Amino acid sequence: MRLSTQRVPDNPKFGSPSDFKRAIADLKKTFVQDGVISTDVHDLEAHGFSTMDYHPATPHTVVVYPKSTEDVVKVVKIATKYRMPVIPYSGATSLEGHFRGHPVGGICVDLNYMNKILEIHEDDSDLVCQAGAGWMDINETLKQKGIPLFFPIDPGPGASLGGMLSTGCSGTNAVRYGTAKGEWFINATVVLPSGEVIKTKRRSRKSAAGFDTTKLFIGAEGTLGIVTEVTIRLAPVLPTTVAVVHFPDVGSATAASIEAIKQGAGIQCVELLDAIAMKATNNYGMSTRKWPEKDSLIFKFQGSSESSLKETAKIVQRVVAKHGGTGFVLAKNAKEADDLWADRKNLYHSGLSLVEGARGLTTDVCVPVSRLPDLIHETKKDLEKVGLVTSIVGHVGDGNFHALLLFKTDEELAIAQQAAARIVHRAIALDGTCTGEHGVGIGKRKYLIEELGAGTVDLMKTVKRAIDPLGIFNPGKLYPDPIHANKFQPQ
Ligand SMILES: Cc1cc2nc3c(=O)[nH]c(=O)nc-3n(C[C@H](O)[C@H](O)[C@H](O)COP(=O)(O)OP(=O)(O)OC[C@H]3O[C@@H](n4cnc5c(N)ncnc54)[C@H](O)[C@@H]3O)c2cc1C
Fold it and tell me: Partner of 366 for a Cys bridge, out of 159, 215, 310, 400, CB 3.0 to 4.6 A?
């Protein structure tokens, strides 16, 4: 098998420290109004680091807050002139070191002032907004305006459309609505490394005009350009409710979820919480209930009427009972449904509460759903031996799960990282992926050749070189180095 040996692009040559000083002077001359350019030490650190991951990091050299696509073009032209790394930044909720500062420094382009909804087309079920608009704010605005539509892609709270498109994210709703890699982004306006502005497509729902250039930027993690505007598709808001059920083991819970989905009933989400995650929920103290500390599923049902929700609940209750499900609780009203679902939404923080003062490492593998019971079984056996407190929470309907490994010391972090690597190799061996939704960033680069093969990785690098020949867009992220090819020895 051929191993990828190409660099991305060949040995990028960044400017010198004095070039970067000249770049900052140019930025200050270009943007004379207050608050657009920041070299404040705290600002540089806050944008270059994240407490949510454990990758090496350096502060950026400067943070720029553009207000328009034209501003972004000006920034990109200055970055190109001085060969300065450019790191796009939106909601800052990504988990794999995606927006970390580069060792030579760089310009962090923070799109948070570009957060406006520009057009809402209720009859077309779509919306045009700037890339810094948050998915939760968009849904809240639609609700306030009485428009019965919503954007169903639901990653971390605080994520914005530019970052969501760039990570190819998803969330609990993916069972019903798919991911950012589906058809939820109708088009994107992008500032390319050349400074040229392109719009990938018009607003019509369908187009067969050439290949899908919107998709080129989905999952590109800011390495091919800066997205400044998007048109997104919206879905009708339908009545939902929530149910919880407990199982003797994770295998039965997973098998029940697979069979329930196959019934074609109105399931919007199905989430697995292992017994330790349930214990964490009790421990955390935010839940309105004390749960049995057993492996459990939380379902969100969706239907066009109350009676269709009840019908779905009946079908699912019958299926889960076949797999040993007990204690089936169906929310009696909207408030109770919100309370039950909040227990799922609080899981990261409740998981951390299991060990006082601990930090958490989260994994993100995904396999074909039929392989999930094997993967979780093997993973739990492995995690029992590592001597750390760990819990498993899964978007089980998609074959995607997150193990949360708690640690307090550097030695424990190393143990957690080794266990996380074993989970990745196990998932890839089951025809799965190192990342179901969080993306590659710095943390998953080393697995890409093993997962995708050298040819596919080389194709990605060829596209990167064509669009960003200077290699200044988010360098050090996404694409594996040749050293990773040497590490992966195919059987
Ligand atoms: C508590 C929590 C729960 C989470 N749950 C989920 C989940 O269920 N599903 C899921 O998929 N993820 C989840 N995540 C991860 C995260 O929310 C997603 O990766 C999200 O898509 C990141 O969006 P962001 O706006 O925060 O992007 P950022 O973190 O700001 O950036 C992400 C990447 O995109 C690039 N980028 C940002 N903006 C642009 C732009 N305008 N143009 C080009 N490139 C850009 C950045 O350079 C970076 O590489 C979770 C995170 C947290 C903290």
Answer: 400
Q: Which residue has the tokens 């993690």?
A: 221
Q: Indicate the pTM of the whole model.
A: 0.95
User: What percent of the chain is modeled with pLDDT above 70?
Assistant: 97
Helix, strand and coil in the chain, % to nearest 5? 40, 20, 40
- Give me the architecture of the 240-430 domain, per CATH: 3-Layer(aba) Sandwich (3.40)
Q: Is the CB of 402 under 6 A from ligand 1?
A: no
Q: How far is the CA of 307 from the centre of ligand 1 (A)?
A: 37
CA-to-CA distance for 263 and 327, rounded, in angstroms?
Answer: 21
Does CATH place domain 117-236 in 3.30.465.10? Answer: yes
The two tokens of residue 313 are 């609940």
- Count, residues in the chain: 491
| Residue intervals in the chain for CATH 3.40.462.40 | 240-430
pLDDT digits (tens, 9 = 90+) for 111-164: 999 999 999 999 999 999 999 999 999 999 999 999 999 999 999 999 999 999
Helices (H) and strands (E) in the chain, counts: 17, 18
Distance, in Å, from the CA atom of 183 to the CA atom of 160, rounded to the nearest integer, reads 17
What's the 220 CA to ligand 1 centre distance in angstroms?
12
